[in-house]
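Journal club side-thread
Mid-discussion, someone asked how the predicted structure for our own chain would compare to the paper's figures. Pasting it here so we can look after the session.
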Amino acid sequence: MRVTEGLRLCAIVGAFSLFGAGAARAAEVTRFSANGSMATHNSFDGSASLDMSVTRNDKGSSSTTNLFFNKQTCDFSGCSGTFGFGTIPNGDFIIGGGTAKLNTNLAANPGYQVFRYDANGTTPVIGGVITMDWKVIPRQSSSNTGISTFVSGAFSNRFSGTQTSDRATTTGTFFGVPVPKDIAYIGTNKTSQIIINRD
């Protein structure tokens, strides 16, 4: 198990609110909360890493489903990649009985935010199709409580909360490219996430 797993594997998200700060250096702050089912995937194919989490928030009068991902490549000059977050249709994520399935088209979801980032800053881009299937591996479970942070260029991410999960296998594609099999989990969590995107 990677040392960096911890709550980085937390699926984050649920209902969110969004507000901006004006002045010379604007920043967009997005807040997510989750209280329900989740599935995560973390992989590295030798050149690029993919961290992804999808979470159902069942607290309140209606459910929401949110997806967070960060696919990046790093070398001696820095990191670049694609970062996305937002709400997806509830029907795009099905979980239960030791399995989970994600099938979503971000290009058809105008409320979902996707950015390309590198040393020169961030640029909004159009998302694509993500498909993923999870299947629990028997007798491999874990629980995490704490705080995890991620910073890359103009983006910063802070996760906090509790997660209980079972290790899982995954198969799928990210924007049409097959996803390597690596670390994945299915479970439940109660978390909060704050994403800051500075212009």
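Post-session note: Confidence is low (pLDDT under 50) at residues 1-25.
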